[in-house]
Every structure is written in C-alpha cells, then in structure tokens.
Amino acid sequence: MSIYKPVITPESRLTSLGFELPDAPDAVSNYAPLVQSGSIVYTSGQLPWIDGELKYGGQLGQGGERSDEDGYQACRLSALNAVAQLKKHLGELSRVKQIVRVEGVLNVKCDSRWTGQPKALDGASDLINAVFGEQGRHSRMVNSNSAMPLDCTSLIYIYAEVE
C-alpha cells in the first residue's frame, strides 16, 4: 500500500482540464504585459491569442458577428493567456496566494437589451476557479466597449496576491 499522495498544483489542474499553457504573449505596444508591486501582480489586458494569431475578433451582442458562446470562449482563452503571464513571471503558479480580481472588457454591438456580459466573463472565471481552486475565488468587473484594440472580442486582466 502506497502512502504517496500526489501534489495537486495549478499546473496539474490545467493538464487535467485538457489545457496546455501557451507561451506568455508579448505586449502589442509600449507597455509591460505584467507588473508586480509588493505582493500584488497585475496583468495587462490579455487578448484571445493562439500562437500569435487573434482567435476571436469582432463584436458580441445583438447585431454583432460573434455568438454568446464565442464570448465565453474568448474570455476563457484571454484568461489562459493571463495565467501564462503569471506563470512566466512567477515560475510556479503555486506561488499565487489568491486571485484577487478579474476584469473583463468585451467588444459589444448592441442596445441596452443585451445582457450577456456576465455569462461571457464566466469563461474567464470558470477557468481561473478550476485552475486555482479556493485561491481562485475572486471579485470581478465587466465593461462593454463598441471598439476594442485590434478588434479583439475580449480583454482579461488579473490581479493576484503572490508569495
């Protein structure tokens, strides 16, 4: 009988969820992709990139070319890129003590009747909660814009307390 108990890390959770952590994307302009001040790490807005290509561009909502499911997937992919920034900076994701806040900005074309923003941002929250467990529980905020950098569908920002 083995007394070995496997260590469950955020990286192992990512793998068990079927995700491969991408390389952290470079900044697209004159800013840092991530900054640490004291024990808090702030990512810059992360887009839904895969291998340097924008996977989700265009608008959500009534009259937009993207579906609500696309919004969820775009936010999830943007969050995965934000987690990649944390990994690059920290070396090990287990150094995250708490994901403090997740902020999302969505590219939306609609009138005030479309209210799908919270469900789209769930793509980011669901991923972060699954990867970080209790340390992933976070506050959050979502905004809608009618124009976004590079016509991306989503931008995700993560604030994390780290060791």
SSE topology:
Layout: H1 10-16, E1 34-37, E2 40-43, E3 49-50, E4 53-54, H2 68-90, E5 96-107, H3 117-132, E6 139-145, E7 154-162
Parallel strand pairs: 5-6
Antiparallel strand pairs: 1-2, 2-7, 3-4, 5-7
Helix pairs in contact: 2-3
What does this 3D model show about the protein?
- The chain starts with 9 loop residues before the first helix and ends with a strand.
- Helices cover 28% and strands 25% of the residues.
- It has three helices and seven strands.
- It has a five-stranded mixed beta sheet with strand order 1-2-7-5-6, covered by helices on one side. It has a two-stranded antiparallel sheet with strand order 3-4.
- Helix 2 (68-90) runs parallel beside helix 3 (117-132).
- With 163 residues, the protein is α+β, with helices and mostly antiparallel strands.
- The chain has helices at 10-16, 68-90, 117-132, and strands at residues 34-37, 40-43, 49-50, 53-54, 96-107, 139-145, 154-162.
From the structure above, extract its key features.
single chain; 163 residues; alpha+beta; 60s Ribosomal Protein L30, Chain: A; two-stranded antiparallel sheet; 25% strand; globular
